[in-house]
Amino acid sequence: MCSSDLDGMDADALFAKVGEIAAANPGNRCTKYLTREIFDSFDDTAKAVLFRCAKTGIDNADSGLGCYAMQPNDYSTFGKFFDPLIRDYHGAAADAKHITDWDASGVGEGGVLDVTKLGLDELSMRVRVGRNLKKYNLPGMMDKAERIDFEKTMLGAFKALIDNPDYGGAIYSLTPEFADGEANPNLISTEKYDELVKAHVLFKDMDADPFLKSAGIASDWPYGRGCWQSTDGQCIIWFGEEDQLRIMCMKKGTLLNEVFDRLNAMLKVVEAIEGIEFAISDDYGYVTSCPSNLGTGMRASVHVKIPNLTKDGTDTRAKEIAGPLGLSVRGTGGEHTPIGADGTVDISPQSRLFIKECEIIEKLYNGVKLLMEAEQAEGGGAAPAAAPAAAGGPYDGMDADALFKKVGEIAAANPGNRCTKYLTREIFDSFDDTAKGVLFRCAKTGIDNQDSGLGCYAMQPND
Ligand code: ADP
Ligand code: CIR
Q1: How far apart are CA 311 and CA 308, in angstroms?
Q2: pTM, entire model
Q3: Helix residue ranges per DSSP H, 102-172
Q4: Which pLDDT band holds residue 392 (cuts at 50, 70, 90)?
Q5: Pocket around ligand 1 at a 6 A CB cut-off
Q6: How large is the average pLDDT for residues 134-153?
Q7: Contacts of 35 (CB under 8 A, 6+ apart)
Q8: H or E element, residue 229
Q9: Pocket test for ligand 1, best of 115, 236, 247, 301 (most atoms within 8 A of CB)
Q10: What is the rounded CA–CA span in Å between residue 161 and residue 159?
């Protein structure tokens, strides 16, 4: 293979560098899992592709993953590299297989996830999935001609949506011109682009992201980039970002299930359009460029105001609380942007793979509930969902025997729930009735939310 395939290095120099990065950056999963033995097991053509998958982690030593797939089959072709890395990142067993399931009829109250029940008013809600077409390279390996060809394929699909009275809408493209100087009828001005980014409809200039840039995902900007948006503004399909397609539903409202169900309906319409066949892996579900998005490709988010948890003007405290709840905190302009001046943040469940779609939306709802309780507690107010437990019980209608029967059952079924793991009858009985009432309030969240990681909050500074 020629040295230009490996950024001017031969394999010895490359692996000397990989070893140095791995030693200095234990969190860089690319250099942790990319061994010389794996690399040498491939022919020169495959080696060059594997290097392109790993280049972002070599160029950016502070990467958490440090790799992107370049072709839909890379996760299987280079499974020796990707599989342990994926299972490490997603905390999954070696035999876990992904299952797709959008049936959210069993979540919340009869399938309804109403944020007003959490004491919240209308929120900005968004659910997106990453998708890629089987017949094209993934964005990191596309050249300019393929990006334009892909956009032209999508124009046919967008026409079907525009002609459908449920959607309608328009295409906003950044592509200066198509091949052979053909004019692009959907080209928008810089001002319109800025307006759409500000309105959260279009994505930012990817060239500014060093991870995407060295992976080639940002190359040829702005060719093959843009979006379709429905007439009511709620349904959006990005083309040419980190995944070939990011398909989403977004609106201000109170029922999370509405954006979730509408996205599911839209996906069925898109998948039925001729020429649209999404890349799917038997083990990992929907194929995405970044291993972090595999499976559902789903990020379900809300913008919520948490002024108490952000009173220092940063998201540090919010992340301390949200992390153990399995939630990510982002800024109001998306990843790597600052939080809002009024304490508004973007909250979404971290999990994408080995989790069902319906579980993600439920996790968002339950997570926001716990986060808002923490927000209240941080402000010195009582946690709203914690019912006052009378001294000596009953504890939410249970006596101590019934309570500990329930704690035992939850602990057995949910080994990750630290509240029910550590709350023993012996500890409980060592307190007087007043203290028992407070201890119950500390633990109530872990009893009500069996999927808690911590499952408890202090109620008073000395708890
Ligand atoms: P992605 O969600 O696709 O991983 P980002 O975090 O960069 O990517 O977000 C993309 C855009 O979507 C940004 O403009 C961001 O502000 C917007 N966005 C995400 N969630 C919401 C939401 N709940 N309400 C409004 N805009 C949102
Ligand atoms: C990394 O490896 O750290 C970057 N390529 C980004 C990884 C995925 N994004 C994320 O965790 N939010």
Answers
A1: 5
A2: 0.84
A3: 144-162
A4: low
A5: 124-126, 128, 200, 246, 250, 299, 301-303, 330, 332-335, 346
A6: 98
A7: none
A8: strand 226-229
A9: 301
A10: 5
